[in-house]
Design goal:
It contains 4 helices and 3 strands, in the order ααβββαα. By secondary structure, it is an alpha+beta fold.
Length: 137
């Protein structure tokens, strides 16, 4: 009985079109590549934002000084943005105040807000007298 099943399987596999099998095998490979690319991009975006946060926290640590001899102190946070990968990304903007009063600006935060690509694109449109309003119609 086993020999008969083996022979039937061998005949069926030799008669089956091999192109369909190859096409079906390639489709999941393409999906895997596309999914991997999307996951790598998402991972790099998360890592990039973590790096930005690390720079902000490091500047805060340096500006505030050691505990007990602080020249400034943390004063909460507010919603802010940085330019990352050519677009504005919302992040919590940490705030500092000097001991004598008044807000201290974070240099790293200001630098992360300046990308230049978006500003240059708007300047090009204005030079060419293209409307920057979002008109409907």
């Amino acid at each position: 009985m086993k020999k008969q099943n083996t022979r039937l399987l061998a005949e069926a596999s030799s008669q089956a079109p091999k192109q369909n099998v190859l096409r079906k095998a390639r489709l999941p490979l393409l999906e895997i590549i596309l999914n991997t690319q999307a996951k790598i991009e998402a991972l790099s975006a998360r890592v990039g934002l973590k790096i930005i946060d690390h720079f902000l926290q490091e500047e805060i640590r340096q500006r505030c000084g050691p505990w007990g001899r602080q020249s400034a102190y943390r004063h909460g946070q507010q919603l802010g943005y940085v330019v990352f990968a050519g677009r504005k990304v919302s992040i919590p903007h940490p705030r500092l105040r000097a001991k004598g009063g008044g807000e201290l600006l974070l240099e790293s935060y200001q630098r992360f807000q300046q990308d230049g690509h978006m500003q240059r694109a708007v300047a090009r449109k204005l030079i060419h007298r293209v409307s920057t309003r979002d008109y409907v119609g």
